[in-house]
Queue: 3 jobs
Job 1
Amino acid sequence: MRYYQSIYYIANSLLGKWIAQTNNSGSIKEKDNRSTEDAELIRLRKSKQQLKMENYKFQEAPIITKLKQSKTNLN
């Protein structure tokens, strides 16, 4: 382990984290090592952001429609 730390300048804590993750889930990817609660929280945050964007579009739609109507009335 020290051999790789010296060659790649990897901190002992980081290498230990990677080894523990590999032993637990077989992967060092963050996504594969999340708890179910963390994954659910991320999913809910993404859903909330999507709903915010959709809500904003619905709020802006009447304004855009009015602007288009006023342009056609002027012509």
Note: The two ends are 77 Å apart (CA to CA).
Job 2
Amino acid sequence: MSIIERIFYIMEEKKIRASDLQKELNVTYSQISNWHKRNTDPPAKYILQICNILEVSPEYLLSSEELIIKPKIQPEKISTSLSKDEIDLYQCIGKRVHVLLNEQGKRQKDLADFLGTATSTVHGWKQGNRNPSSEVLLPICEFLDISLEYLLTGKERNTVKQIGNNNDLSIDETDLLSYFRELSRSNQRSILVQMENMIKQENEQSATKQGKSLA
């Protein structure tokens, strides 16, 4: 299932209309229609806003794992009214990739080989005129060992160390976060999908028990 197919699948499940998506993204209806008809993924700069509308995480939307409609568990919503600085953050994803490549001493060719694309394509992102396509965002994160949120916004959520200082977390919860951070991005995504499945099963079991108690 492609990203745009997943988007429309979730929209159908949640009764969200294409016109609703169009208004929230501030694009024309024909753009939404063309993405759907041509099976073309939306530009990377719209991913966070789409996730906000669909109430799913970016990792979930872009993941190639089996699609299961998840409960409302996600990062804090982004504003649909973006400031100029925020818009600039979304529009410079390609530049951010090159900054990270330089910081990590990695070559454009290595990233291009990892993504299975031409080096000229990766080089083109440096000018800021084009961003990576949505389908390569997760592989880029894996190559650079960064979070998807950081790639898209240049901002990072709390680290495990910061979260671990929260007195509300138990020792087990802190250990769980620490172990999670040690996993590769692909394994982290697998764990998240498994957890989402478990949550869905527990919600279904809870609903069944409530139904029986009311009968």
Note: The two ends are 39 Å apart (CA to CA).
Job 3
Amino acid sequence: MNKPERPRNQADETFEQLFIEAEKQGQEWKEKYYKALSSGDVETLETLIAEAKEVGDVYKNDNEINNFISYFTSSAFSYGEMMNKIVALETLPEVDRVEYNAPNGVLKIYTKDGYVRGDLITVNLLSKSLRWLRYDEEITSLTRRVGQCHHRSLELADNLKYELNLSPVIVTGQASSLAEKCSVLHTWLEVQIQGKPYVLDYTMNALIDKEAYYKIKHVKENETCRIDYGDYMYDKPIIRPLLESKELKYKQYLFFRDEIMKDLKKEKNGNEPGNI
């Protein structure tokens, strides 16, 4: 079978304009922010925050909660270090107390004043909840799992269907716990468990209720692209060769799925015998 060729289209140009340059600038801003934060450079921090507020809000405390969850779901910290981080997190005005069950991989953050529904954020480690998950060393590493969200989410979706007969929705959208200035195009999965919506985020190594996830990541649901697992299975024979050959980026397919599949079908029909 000949490998399908995909002509460049409007989705490619839109993708480059909207995401590639913006993500590059956002990443540079974020690196400057954390460098200033770690060195105590208050003047630079104030300049960066003012710059970010020209784009949107800055969410320092939401970012602290998000970072703590990322630390908890990694293997980078000892039990003692995690206890120190819990003490620091409990000083935030949004947080009442934190419960940490290391053997079971369960974190409970009790919040205040309706921060989230029920004032409770529960996080389960994917690496402990899904015993059959293969990427143990990667998924528990703060550095190695970064940038793996798009293709690993597709692999995780296949595993959920095969192992648990769950058909997740593959969701891609802008996400940032710190500021809209440094938001990135991110992919995660959503499933219904006993009638309640949950998010599975590979690069966070977390199973977390959807409302809490959208809160700390500042996801705008009406600006996400959602692909039902059944649609992805239909696309797979067509799209997989293009993804594996890198003719098409994973994030392009995930965010512009409908436009890209429409173009591919049009191209295929135009090349069939009898079509002139």
Note: The chain has a mean pLDDT of 86.
